[in-house]
Structure formats: structure tokens, C-alpha cells
Design goal:
This protein is an alpha+beta fold. It has 2 domains: about 230 residues, Endonuclease III, domain 1 (Orthogonal Bundle); about 130 residues, Nucleoside Triphosphate Pyrophosphohydrolase (Alpha-Beta Complex). About 40% of the residues lie in helices and about 15% in strands. Strand 9 and strand 10 form a beta hairpin. Helix 2 runs antiparallel to helix 8 and helix 5 crosses helix 14. The radius of gyration is 25 Å and the shape is globular. The relative contact order is 0.11.
Amino acid sequence: MNGNRVQAKSVNRKTVCGPTSETQQDLLGWYAKHQRQLPWRLRNDPYEIWISETMLQQTTTAAVAGYFVKFLARFPDVHSLARASLSEVFELWSGLGYYSRARNLHKAALIVSANGGVMPKSVAELLELPGVGPYTARAVAAIAFEVPVGVVDGNTIRVLSRHFGEPFKWWEAGDRKQLQEAADLWVSGAVSPGQMNQALMELGATLCTPSNPACLLCPISASCQGRLKQELLSLPLRKTQRAREIWHWQPQVMERSGTVALIHNTKLPFLKGHWIFPGPGRRLMRPPKNFGFRHSITHHDIYVRVQKLPVSKMQSLPARKKLGVAQDGLGKRSSKGNVSTICSEVEKWESLTRLSQASPSSILKKIIKVVAPLVSSNS
């Protein structure tokens, strides 16, 4: 390879030049020597890469490593994952959060397993799988199958923004496209697109960090425009944080023969798709004074007050799969804030043990801890 730059592309903001072949080799050489020993790097297995990239969405590498090993021990291939029940998958996912990832992973495993267990290779085919977005599709295609596409995540956004010395608004479509084109240029002509993408991400995770970049150790610092302009700490730009929402949720415990009434949440903005206790949820302008505990999920601050439905009301409920539950002003707007609720019918009765397996989120575990004595005292 010679020292010529990879062909540049003209974009709206400026002409983004790709790295020289020497710069590429410098980065790849650094990565070969200094990459972290992570469990998903032991084998270049498409299934394992897919699992790891799904887990790494919104979750740190340090947190994922242990979960990945346990998950692979239980589900070593896509067929074993497809055969498992969703509750089994949730049980192994418990603690990672963002449980829609686990649900979509299971759906996708059913599809891949039905097609012989062979993972799709192209970005377009991977995007057809449930839960697979642009990042995951490109990561699996590049790392597992050496498809020459760049992978854009938080680490590469930081590295590329600083290297080009450009204040990309990475959350906007136009600038995101520019960053994608820049990432694609970095893998153009590279010996291994998979290695190059991992090298860029590794650089951002270990040296080109948000607060204390280790420029003296960086293999590509000589061409870093952000360093030359002394703008490292101002790049990348920070996205304005989404306003936090305050919610007051009052789960209602209705017990029958050691089981509790549950509904499938389709309305509350948190825990969507989970089996949860019925009861009103109200968005407020300020925190309530009367609550049992507080829990945060993304931008939702949830104040929870668990209620036990009186025995007299429980005894009057018909023992059938679906039964009406009275709601208080649900779906209406009030001066206290937006009122929202979950559906008005109990959909099933389940033991607390089964609930913790099927919906293992942290907030439900807290509620179950409160609920357990209430249920056992009348069972």
C-alpha cells in the first residue's frame, strides 16, 4: 500500500478525506498490540458477534462481559436460543435493561433458526431482522463477514469528530450521514474492515475518551485536527438532553390462591410490552408527596405506591381470564398533569416467581419485594 489518501468524498459541510494507508496501518498495528481481551473476540462467530453487539447497545463493555458469557453458556447457538421460551431469555438478560432488545433477539433467532441457522451477511438482509438497526447491521456485516462498511457508535463519533476537528451534529440526519461516509472511508482499502472498525471503537473506548484523552499514546494523533486546534474537549458536540418526565404509578395487587393479577402494558411509556400490575399511572409536574419508592428508566422518574386491593373487592371479582378493573379518570387530562393508564382488563393471573422470570426489570423486582408479604399473608 502507498501513502496516498483514500479517495475523498464531498459532503455538505466540507470535503472529508480518508486516512492515508500509513495511518490505517498505524491504527491497526496499535489495535493488534493493545486490544482488550473480550469474550466475543475469542472467535469470529457471526452469532456471538450479533449477541454481543445487541447487548452493547446502551450498555457498557464492562457490564456486558459477564452477561455475555452466561448467555452463551445457556444459548450457545441460534437454534438453542430459538427453542427457549421468552421467559428463559429474560431470565438470562435480567439486569441488562432495555428488555425490548431481548424480546427482539428472540424473535430474530426464530427467523434465523427457521432458515437453517445461517446469519444474513449483507447490511440490507440484517436490517430485516427484528431489533437490528443500522449500527448492529453494519457491525455484524463488517466484523463477522468483512463487508467494507463503517460502524458508527458513540466511540467512533468521538474519534472521527476530533480527528476531523468538526462539530458534527451527530444526532441530525445530515451530519450523521457525513459521519457514516467518513467511517466508510476509514475501512476503504483496509486489510480487514472488521479489524479497522473495532480499532476505531477501541481507540474511542480506551484512549480517545470523553474527559481525559491520552493523546501521547494515540497512534493517529499526528493527523488529529482536534488536537492541533486544541478543541478536543469541545468535541463531539453534546446533544441537548431530553426533558425528564415525572410519573406516579400505583400498581394494584389483587391476589387469588397465591397468584396475582397482571396485564400486558401497552400504554404506560415505560415497561412497554411487559407483564405488570394493573393500576393508574399519572404524569405530574412535580414529585408526589406520598410514594413508596422512586425508580428511573431512561428519562422517566417513576414514583411508585403499591396498593393492595381490599379483600372484599378481590372476593367479588369473577374467576375468569379477563375481568374489568375500575379506573379513575383514565385517559383524560387534568390540572395535575397528563393522565395515562394501562388497559382496563386483567389478562392473566400469575405467581410472583413466574412474573420475576418473565419480566425481570429492576423496578418490577422492587415491586415484587413489596408485594410478596402482601400475597403470602393471604395465600
